[in-house]
Amino acid sequence: MIWLLAAQLVVMLPFLFDLPLWLLPVLVVVAWWRLRVLAGAASQPGNVVKLLLIGLGVGGLLLSGLRFPSLDAMATLLLLGFAFKSLEVVQRRDAIVVIFIGYFLVALHFLYTQSLTAALYGMVSMVVLTGVLVGVQQAITEFSTGQSVRFNLRLAVFMLLQCLPLMMVIFVFAPRIAPLWSIPLASGQTQTGMTDRMAPGDIEKLGKSDELAFRVTFKGKRPAQHELYWQGLVLNHFDGHEWRQFDRDYDVYQLKTALMSHYRWQPERMQVQGNPVAYEAVYETSGQPWLFTLSPAVEVEGDVLRGADYRVMAQEALQAPFLLKAVSYPATQRDVVLPEYLRTLALGLPSTGDQRSRELAQRLRREAGSEQVYIDKVLARFHDLAFEYTLNPPTLGDKDTIDGFLFDSKRGFCAHYAGSFVFLMRAAGIPARVVVGYQGGEWNAAGQYLAVHQYDAHAWTEVWLAGRGWVRVDPTTAVAPSRVEQGLEAAVQAEGSFLADSVLSARKMPWLNGVRQQFDAVQYGWRRWVLGYDREEQAALLKSALGDLSVGKVALFAGGLFAAIGLFWLLALGMAQRRQPEAPEHRLYRRFCEALAKRGARREPGDAPGAFAHQAAEHLPALAEVIREFTQVYEGICYAPPADGRVATRRLKTLLGKIR
Amino acid sequence: MTTAAPQLIQATLAQLNKVIHGKEQQVQLALTCLLANGHLLLEDLPGMGKTTLAHALAHVCGLEYKRVQFTSDLLPADLIGASVFEQQSGRFRFHPGPVFSQVFLADELNRATPKAQSALLEAMEERQVSVDGTTHPLPAPFFVIATQNPQSQSGTFPLPESQLDRFLIRLSLGYPNPEAERALLKGRNGRVLLASMQQVLNESRLKALQSLVPQVKMTDNLLDYVQRLIAYTRQTEVCHLGLSPRGALALVKSAQAWALLQARGHVLPEDVQAVFVAVAGHRIIGRQESQGEQLARQILGKVDVVGGGRG
Questions:
Q1: Domain B216-311's class?
Q2: CA nearest B300 in A: which residue?
Q3: How many angstroms separate the CA atoms of A72 and A76, rounded?
Q4: Among this protein's residues, is A414 annotated catalytic?
Q5: Where in chain B is the domain with CATH 3.40.50.300?
Q6: How far apart are CA B111 and CA A394, in angstroms?
Q7: For A40-92, what is each residue's pLDDT tens digit?
Q8: A333 three-state secondary structure
Q9: pLDDT in tens, B135-171
Q10: Catalytic annotation, pick one of A400, A414, A416, A453
Q11: Exposure pattern of B236-274 as b/e (b: 16+ CB <10 Å)?
């Protein structure tokens, strides 16, 4: 029973990361109480205490402010019940109930995280639970506790391994049905990564995080590092302080409506050119719908939204890793003819504020002969006036932030450069917009993929030029070219601020870096091939294996595999139990007995050959001689081996022929 | 000597059968037990000729023979002897008890208290006796024939299973058949006939015969059958207590001795079957109240004689 408690703790442990923290003391107290009960030092709680505990649990649930109904609230309730149940386990039945709830909890935990480690931990939990289930079924243990636990766990592992082939078949074939109802998740779900607004200081925060944003595998050649601009969203509206997508905040549904109406994607406005870059990206759970692609993604596989700014966006905020297959043509010309609506968006500025910057823009534009020259002049200004690229820029206040940056602090992160550059463009009448996303990524040679982390977050700009459409301009390169060539770490190396807050980060230790990359590669494989195995993947796989798909065909194939596995185990078990084949003389003797039985002399199993021969000879006097001789030879072979058994066996055959 | 073994055995059996009428099977089993160097337990009602058989066996083998009537007040010292102070020498001298003999007849073993019983049973197993810290070896051959009344009779102390196990063979003689009884009534009384018995064997001849027993061949096929039998007794739904390895060894040994009695150089399944009830009957205990011997017969009927892997 102490192992039941251990199994319970193993199952409940991972939930502590996702559910209210006050569960921890409850679990500890319950476990302590249970141990005291097992030691005989305390009694199991009476009805009053049980009611009190239930009251406390429900009260705590109400006070913890979880939305009701939500997954968290329900999971917490179940976990409480699971913990309290251990206080009243008396019979085997109770223990089995606890174990079965344990199995359910193992499955439940996958709603919170589907990572590889969680899966492995789930398997460990399954082994422990199954081991305890085995133990509960044993009436008497013949071993010491340690021995029996080892035995039970080994048996559990063996049993679960036997289930593995069936699991595979179910994984591959079970239909991926769209949920009939969606779980009210998200009360505890945090949003990570890129947001849909950019104020000075937002992106530096990401720059200090080494969380993974997404991973990409390229089919074919990998583009150079400085070409990897992963576009997320386009920020058009500036209110003097921060950049947003539109003049007001849209929620996901309003955004979806916009992306389907006036802001919809119009493929005819681009002229596809250049070489394609085909890739698959697996995005981490971010709680946000943004996806990041090399702009423009011309062909996209998957259920996604697309916008007039060539963005690719998920239908829902990502609550699970998301797989996208895309082919981009980075050299494509976009919006050579700019629609009026987009032009308006790309020229909008607040009516007042940042007066010095406006004057600067107009002065420079006047001096420059063309728009291109003007752009170069602005970039050169960043370079010449010794602007500094830093992860720790000074704060700029709420008003005139562009002026503050351009003329006073001159220290900033990519967001500052992108924001002020677009401001200067618009002030000079050139349509421009801020693009946020990620730039670059870390190439994992072990897994042959690119890992893009939060610190790869970046902001750059697009400028619309007549005859060329939208042109990407990254003002950061003017200040810190190494940011784009070698990544953030190199760009801020002198400053030493790269991941300065995460002291224990593995990437600080070169010797661990290889291990980290390997592990990351394994995780990517898990993401891509296990979690990423969705309806389309399934359909593609089945199509490649079975040709044209029909429900009947798939069902037949899956059923066939099931049957094959069942047959295999049956044979394996049968093989283990099948007796050795009988020696030829015994088989001959049995045929001899059958032949005699047909004539009415039946041998009972307990009749020795000699005794039977006697009876049979009496019963069948005509054959008496043959029967006697056959028995004699047979007894000789069996009990007094002759020099040459084969001669005797042949003789048996001849004699048998005579009887027949 | 070897060539003469069958004749010797036949002569011995003939002498025994002269005294015990119509009990060929039991007489053969008794001799089997002697040849296999095991102890014999005769279990029967009073007056069935148990003592006569024991007498006859000792006589025909030319062995020294002692008999003790077991009673409830019998003490271990009465069996194994005691150290007695001798005045002339001024020291203790060990006076060996009746157990120091070649054939020891323990009459009505189950009338004695467990204390006395166990003294004898220990001597049987160890073939030696320890008194006052000195170990005295028993003569060889040492052959115990114990008789006992069925336990339903009043005033008996039943032997526990562990001690029953020390007897190689348990026999009951049963009522004589009508002819044998007629002869008995006509005055051909066993006790009278004992005097007319010839001594066929002597100590050295008996030892020689005993040494022939392990040489009787057993093939893998036969051992397969023996093992099937043993395994069957160990199935819990059949027996409460199956045959122990010692019991299995006893079975094999008896079967060899029986085969020797049949003047055969190898053991046949028939030999195993012939001794099985006598060897296993007192060693297995059924699930229900059924007698071990009945159970042993049932088992013989159920286990297939034929079969086995490539030997």
A1: mainly alpha
A2: A606
A3: 6
A4: yes
A5: 1-211
A6: 111
A7: 777 777 888 888 888 888 888 888 777 777 778 888 888 888 888 888 877 77
A8: strand
A9: 888 887 888 988 887 766 677 788 877 778 889 999 8
A10: A414
A11: eebbebbbbeebbebbbbbbbbbbbbeebebbbbbbbbb
- The CB density around residue A546, as the number of other CB atoms within 10 Å, is 13
Is beta strand A449-453 parallel, antiparallel or unpaired with respect to A212-219? Answer: antiparallel
How many Å apart are CA A112 and CA A185, to the nearest integer?
A: 9
Number of domains observed in the structure of chain A: 3
Whether B306 and A583 lie within 8 Å, measured CB to CB: no
Residue B306 C-alpha, separation from nearest chain A C-alpha, in angstroms? 7
Q: Which residue of A has its CA nearest to B216?
A: A640
**Which of residues A454, A483, A511 is at a domain's end?**
A511
Higher-scoring residue by pLDDT: A53, A121: A121
**Using the 8-state DSSP alphabet, how is residue A86 labeled?**
G
pLDDT in tens, A474-490: 988 888 888 777 777 77
Q: Are A641 and B219 in contact (CB < 8 Å)?
A: yes
Residue pair A234/A434 in contact (Cβ under 8 Å)? The answer is yes
Do residues A434 and A419 make contact, with C-beta atoms less than 8 angstroms apart?
yes
Q: For B190-248, how does the pLDDT look when each residue is reduced to its tens digit (9 = 90+)?
A: 667 777 888 888 888 888 889 999 999 888 888 989 998 888 888 766 677 778 888 89
Distance in Å, alpha carbon of B206 to nearest chain A alpha carbon: 26
Q: Is A186 inside a domain boundary?
A: no
Give mean pLDDT, residues B84-93. Answer: 85
Q: Which residue of B has its CA nearest to A591?
A: B306
Pick A382 or A177 by higher pLDDT: A382
Chain A 582-641, residues with CB within 8 Å of chain B CB atoms: 582-583, 586, 589-590, 593, 604-611, 635, 638-641
Minimal CA separation from A604 to chain B, in Å = 7
Whether B309 sits inside 8 A of A604 (CB atoms) is no
* Mode of pairing for the β-strands spanning A243-244 and B39-43: unpaired
* Partner residue opposite B303 with nearest CB, options A579, A605, A638: A605
- Please state, in angstroms and rounded to a whole number, the distance separating the CA atoms of residues A285 and A114: 10
| Distance, CA of A472 to CA of A469 (rounded, Å) | 10
Contact residues, A window 425-464, toward B, CB-based 8 Å cutoff? none
Largest CA distance in chain B: 72
Question: B25 vs A38, B22, B172, B284, B297, CA distance in Å?
Answer: 63, 9, 11, 22, 16
CB–CB of B82/B97 below 8 Å?
yes
What are the chain A neighbours of B270 within 8 Å (beta carbons)?
A: 608, 610-611
Residue that is last in its domain, among A476, A511, A546: A511
**What is the β-pairing status of strands A237-238 and A243-244?**
antiparallel
For helices A116-137 and A145-173, angle between their N-to-C axes, nearest 10 degrees: 130
Name residue, tokens 């943004």: A290
Taking 3-state DSSP, the helix, strand and coil percentages for chain B, each rounded to the nearest 5, stand at 45, 15, 35
Do residues A655 and A634 make contact, with C-beta atoms less than 8 angstroms apart?
no
Whether residue A549 is contained in a domain is answered as: no
Is the pLDDT at B24 greater than 90, yes or no? Answer: no
Please report the number of interchain residue pairs, chain A to chain B, with beta-carbon separation below 8 angstroms.
Answer: 64
Q: Give the domain range for residue A503.
A: 197-349+431-511
**What span, in angstroms and rounded, lies between the C-alpha atoms of A346 and A333?**
17
ipTM of this predicted structure: 0.82
Catalytic residue status for A638: no
Q: Which residue of A has its CA nearest to B301?
A: A606
| Number of residues written out for chain B | 311
Q: Does domain B1-211 have CATH number 1.10.3810.10?
A: no
Instruction: Determine which of A580, A582, A586, A646 to mutate to test the interface with B (most B C-beta atoms within 10 Å).
Output: A586
Nearest to B302 among A582, A590, A605 (CB): A605
CA B68 to chain centre: 17
Q: Which sign does the torsion angle of CA A223, A225, A231, A237 carry? A: negative
